[in-house]
Amino acid sequence: MAEFLSLHDAVARYVEDGATVAMEGFTHLIPFAAGHEVIRQGKRDLTLIRMTPDLVYDQLIGAGCAKKVIFSWGGNPGVGSLHRLRDAVEKGWPRKVEILEHSHAAMACAFEAGAAGLPLAVLRGYVGSELPSVNDQIKFIDCPFTGERLAAVPSVRPDVSIVHAQKADRAGNVLVEGIVGVQKEAVLAAKQSIVTVEEIVDDLRAEPGYHPNACIIPGWAISAIAVAEKGSLPSYAHGYYPRNNAFYKEWDAIARDRDAFTAWIEENVMNAGGNAR
Amino acid sequence: MSLDYTSAEMMTVTAARALENGTTCFVGIGLPSEAANLARLTHAPDVVLIYESGTLQTKPDVLPLSIGDGELAETALTTVAVPEMFRYWLQGGKIDVGFLGTAQIDRYCNLNTTLIGDYREPKVRLPGGGGAPEIATNAGEVFITLKHSKRAFVDEVDFVTTLGFGRDGKGRDGVPNIGKGPTRVITDLCVMKPDPETKELVVVSLHPGVTAEQVQEATGWELRFAETLESTPEPSETELEILRDLKARTARAHSGQ
Q1: B126 to chain A: which residues are within 8 Å by CB?
Q2: Contact B145, B32 (CB under 8 A)
Q3: Are the Cβ atoms of A104 and B163 closer than 8 angstroms?
Q4: Distance, in angstroms, between A73 CA and closest chain B CA?
Q5: Considering only alpha carbons, which residue of chain A is nearest residue B122?
Q6: Dihedral pair phi/psi, residue B182, rounded to 5°
Q7: Residue A264 φ then ψ, to 5°
Q8: pLDDT at B116 over 50
Q9: Which chain A residues contact residue B72 at CB under 8 A?
Q10: Domains detected in chain B
Q11: B55: which DSSP letter?
Q12: Which of B73, B163, B178 shows the shortest C-beta gap to A129?
């Protein structure tokens, strides 16, 4: 059963140095507040999994939290590069970061396989791509029924997954609306999970607009819930606030420069108690 | 020849015209998204646009900055989880056209969005594959649109992120359950199509005012030109007006106002 904790306590309890962590949210509902808490608590040597590292992992990488990043598209959407990711990969600042890259299809399938308790995901993928030559976690198998050659990747099984959602109710059930990405899969694939939410309501089923096919993660499938208002800014929360596209553009200049980045983290993360941006 | 338009507008309009009404199109962000939405707002009102964020049959009023902007979910028929998007809709064979951009392309339409230089010692690290590797092989066919330059049109891509026809042009031969691959490349100078036999890109149409020499100058290999080289039709006044409106709305929406 989900336990209601402060964001500080949830991260302190479930994110250990050296852990494999997936913070998901496909452009939408990116758990920035939780990412900032991980930075504030100085977690180290994390293996960070995310389909799109986005600004949240750029910040964690630049702050020295990551040892390895597993991803499938590492850019600033619509803007350009993730400069902290690039600086870590190209120049080893602030430390060398190992990368393992996939395609979106493979990672999505790997999250789904993790949720399904399988050791691997099978897909019709990577045909003719050179990604398998630089990622030893991409293999090919022959279908035992048709003989077709298919790609196989290990399932994603994080020590802890962290996602952000619109609301939870008193029983810890969580509602995710809009672009749902691989959030449910990430939670179900992980040993432990933290869900941050915009707000707590009494009973999701009594909420206006609730319908029987809503994307709900039951409270008994979640380890901890923490309230983090505006917890996915500068990404967005469908029904709550829009994406701060202007900040995604501003980030380009901040992240290009090591000193500007460090100053930004100091001011907006280290010296901010709760939510930056 | 009286209309005033830019080469970028020429590219977008030409790319948009390539999409037939009623087509199901898996849309990449950036230029493909601009072209696909222009198609939807002009000659192809029933084109079905699908973005990898899980948004099915979406009709954004402004162009998304990211592949997962709220605008896409708010105007979609339905929004599905990302694994469903790739497994059922793309891999399941429901997509007619994959519309992609790229950083580098070679004569066999192989696409590189991974890096410039050597993989272990990159000169420039690019974002990576994203949805492209499987869009390019699981969609019925692939359209590619990008600005023409020697940096982009290279003799050999530094890395094959996404299959065109392989480094020898035979990358799809004998592969079961694979799409046709790239069928046209639309740039700001011309339209190219792969040779039916060798799969090497051939320039089939030059945009108005563009010379073959200009295209060759902006390409990193010795180009082939079709025997009967066509002239790409100019944009119409309506197309330009709708495109400019769309871009102005988009700029306003993204300026943070």
Answers
A1: 75, 81
A2: yes
A3: no
A4: 5
A5: A90
A6: -60, 135
A7: -65, -45
A8: yes
A9: 179
A10: 7-188+234-254 (3.40.1080.10)
A11: E
A12: B163
Which one of B55, B71, B86 makes the best mutation probe of the A interface by having the most chain A beta carbons within 10 Å?
Answer: B86
Domain A3-102+157-259 has CATH 3.40.1080.10: yes
Query: How far is C-alpha A37 from the chain's CA centre?
Result: 14
Instruction: Calculate what percentage of chain A has a pLDDT beyond 70.
Output: 98
What would the pLDDT profile of A47-72 be if each residue is shown by its tens digit?
999 999 999 999 999 999 999 999 99
pLDDT in tens, B22-33: 999 999 989 999
Our CA-based measurement puts residue A135 at a distance from the nearest CA of chain B, in whole angstroms, of 11
Distances (CA, A) of B66 to A22, A110, A120: 21, 23, 30
For the annotated catalytic residues of B, the residue numbers are 52
Q: How deeply is B141 buried, as exposed, middle or buried, from its count of CB atoms within 10 A (0-12, 13-18, 19+)?
A: middle
Kindly determine whether residue A129 and residue B160, on different chains, have CB atoms separated by under 8 Å: yes
Q: Is the dihedral of CA A194, A195, A200, A205 positive or negative?
A: negative
Closest listed residue to residue A3, CA positions, set A228, A226, A274, A229: A226
Contact between B129 and A129 using a beta-carbon 8 Å cutoff: yes
Show residues of chain A in contact with B86, CB under 8 Å.
104-105, 108-109, 123
β partners of residue A194: A162, A224
Q: What is the pTM of this model?
A: 0.96
